[in-house]
Design goal:
Length: 370
Amino acid sequence: MIVLSEEDVMLKDMANGWTADRAPVPALRALRGQLADTGFDPALYAEMAEMGWPAILIPEEFGGVGMNRVSLGLIAEELGRNLVGSPLVWSAAGAVSALTLGTNQAAKEALLPQIANGSLAAALAIDDENHHRPHTISTTAQKYESGWVLSGAKRAVPDATGVGLLVIAAQLEDTSPALFSCPVDTAGVTLTSLDRIDSRGAADIVLDNVSLGPDALLGQGQDYLDTVLDSVRAILAAEMLGGTAQAFETTVEYMKTRIQFDQPIGSFQALQHRAADMLGEIVLARAAVYGALQAIDAGDADASRQVSLAKAIAGDCFRTMAREMIQIHGGIGMTDEHDAGLYLKRAHVLDHTLGNAAFHRERYARMLDI
């Protein structure tokens, strides 16, 4: 189990207090109304930027904080507890990893300071189809003297509405994958908003001969792409861990106060067994998630395997706990007015994002040559 530094403890406490005060779970319902166009509240994201959260992984030379992925995971866990809608994960983990792990120095100098101060938010456009297949990218990038031309489409890009930058995966002429920076307002880029169950700002994207400058290429190669994706997957697993933990705590509190047959339902042995099973799964998920984050920070050779383990375990755990939350809450858990359904919807979306539990179990097995 991870031992947090004093800085990380302070960061976690700050994130916990801020989310409880400024972004409680009921605030998510606003995403289905006045914030439906963006899928997040720009004012809240500006507050996150003031606290330095988008800058966590950015080196100090580019205006960042220079901390590690464990620190960002702690923030994501707290956001996951309250189902906070924001492009933080995709900007602070996705775009920042694409830039810092890439070879484009000019792009680092131009984009990282903007991401750090919150003036620029980004989305990661990877999948060409409904299923996550990062090794079979069909979007193409043609090299010309004047720069690059991208053609293709991206499906269900998370938090794409309301951001200013897209980091797009495309296939080069030698069939190797690469990531490109592309402003959302570039000619030829068309976004179609999706009405998803978690009320976030996902969109389908069409790239119709999109012309980009010569400095748009951030990095290339399958190892580079996989490393960037693993960075985001680990942070998403931390977000799922937070949602699981809050769903569990809310359900246990309900078991203590809901009276049936003149006694709290938490006194029934069957429910006690279910709660004990879930607590054990949460402890296992926490160990896997922070083990993966530490492995990435340490540059371990098996970091990718640990990330897939964490994503699979966290995905299964969150979906199971969300279903238990609805069942144990009984009739009220089935209503839209109760928060239980919000956790279930988010659990399913996060599980399928960048590979569901089945995808990562298979990936884990392949890494072990099983």
